């Protein structure tokens, strides 16, 4: 099974279900996992400079034999490199490590005080056609508003923590209004994905696993999701969600499980 795509603000198509490679610093682990994901049918890979695995991801892409134009590769500028010139330099390093001529999506990893200059550099890379889609990550509405106030080309993706314990209704609505697609990181989120009776009931009803129910919920919300698993069976399981649909009431029931619980930092309150 492969993922359908969604069309971003500039017409570029992005697979709605991709593969994330966070916490795979060891070369062989990241290489084997990325290769396995591509063999399983994933066409979008989400990495970041700080993950320390761009070389391994790049080598796996090369060795997979999948045509470059079929792939959608995301990477992110780390906090220490924020600012205009430093972002341009960090991008060169990422591109070189990945062994690519361009990346599909380049993101500001977290909002720092230099977020506007960082985004202006990403916009420049977009104008230079080194980046197919400009975007940001972990931006609250007030961060997006700072960027939108100066952008010639608005960010087209905001990658944020989103799962049933943190359904992000207000931010998703703001992004929808501005035609900014939302990518859910930690899409499986917290334990409730696997233990909540409502999710377990839906899994039994559809003959799916709880992980598949939650990933399908992201898809039906219109989000992009980038689950991570180093296990081939789970990689395949997570991609096998395009043969059923949840009802509108079921989607709303999962969304209502929200408790504003984060697995990661609040972008307004982090110090790295
Ligand atoms: P996730 O929701 O993808 O995974 C959570 C846990 O679920 C993992 O331990 C995984 O092993 C397990 N899992 C995966 N599939 C499963 C299945 N079918 N059944 C049971 N367990 C399963 O969370 P994540 O790895 O934190 O996030 C996914 C990706 O999001 C990352 O790899 C990274 O690419 C991206 N990310 C981005 C940011 C950011 O700041 N932009 C932060 C964190 C993660």
Automatic annotation (TrEMBL):
Domain NADP-dependent oxidoreductase positions: 24-258
Keyword annotations from UniProtKB, A to Z: NADP, Oxidoreductase
Record InterPro entries: AKR, Aldo/ket_reductase_CS, NAD(P)_OxRdtase_dom_sf, NADP_OxRdtase_dom
Pfam families the UniProt entry points to: Aldo_ket_red
One GO molecular-function entry: oxidoreductase activity, acting on the CH-OH group of donors, NAD or NADP as acceptor
Location of the active site: 51
Binding site for substrate: 109
Residues the UniProt record annotates as site (Lowers pKa of active site Tyr): 76
Assigned protein family: Belongs to the aldo/keto reductase family.
PANTHER family for the chain: 2,5-DIKETO-D-GLUCONIC ACID REDUCTASE, NADP-DEPENDENT OXIDOREDUCTASE DOMAIN-CONTAINING PROTEIN
Protein name: Glyoxal reductase
Source organism: Caryophanon tenue
């Amino acid at each position: 099974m492969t993922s359908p795509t969604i069309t971003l603000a500039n017409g570029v198509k992005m697979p709605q279900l991709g593969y994330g490679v966070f916490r795979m610093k060891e070369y062989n682990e990241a290489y084997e996992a990325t290769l396995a994901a591509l063999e399983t049918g994933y066409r979008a890979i989400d990495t970041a400079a700080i993950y320390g695995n761009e070389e391994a991801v790049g080598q796996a892409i090369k060795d997979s034999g999948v045509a470059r134009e079929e792939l959608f590769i995301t990477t992110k500028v780390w906090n220490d490199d924020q600012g205009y010139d430093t972002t341009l330099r960090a991008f060169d390093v990422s591109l070189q490590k990945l062994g690519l001529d361009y990346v599909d999506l380049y993101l500001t990893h977290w909002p720092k005080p230099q977020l506007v200059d960082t985004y202006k550099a990403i916009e420049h890379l977009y104008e230079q056609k080194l980046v197919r889609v400009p975007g940001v990550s972990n931006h609250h509405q007030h961060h997006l508003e700072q960027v939108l106030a100066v952008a010639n080309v608005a960010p087209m993706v905001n990658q944020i923590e989103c799962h049933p314990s943190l359904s992000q209704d207000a931010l998703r609505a703001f992004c929808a209004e501005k035609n900014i697609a939302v990518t859910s990181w930690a899409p499986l989120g917290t334990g409730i994905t696997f233990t909540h009776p409502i999710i377990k009931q839906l899994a039994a009803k559809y003959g799916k696993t709880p992980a598949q129910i939650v990933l399908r919920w992201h898809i039906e919300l219109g989000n992009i999701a980038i689950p991570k698993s180093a296990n081939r069976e789970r990689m395949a399981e997570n991609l096998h969600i395009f043969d059923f649909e949840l009802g509108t009431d079921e989607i709303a029931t999962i969304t209502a499980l929200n408790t504003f619980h984060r697995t990661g930092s609040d972008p307004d309150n982090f110090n790295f």
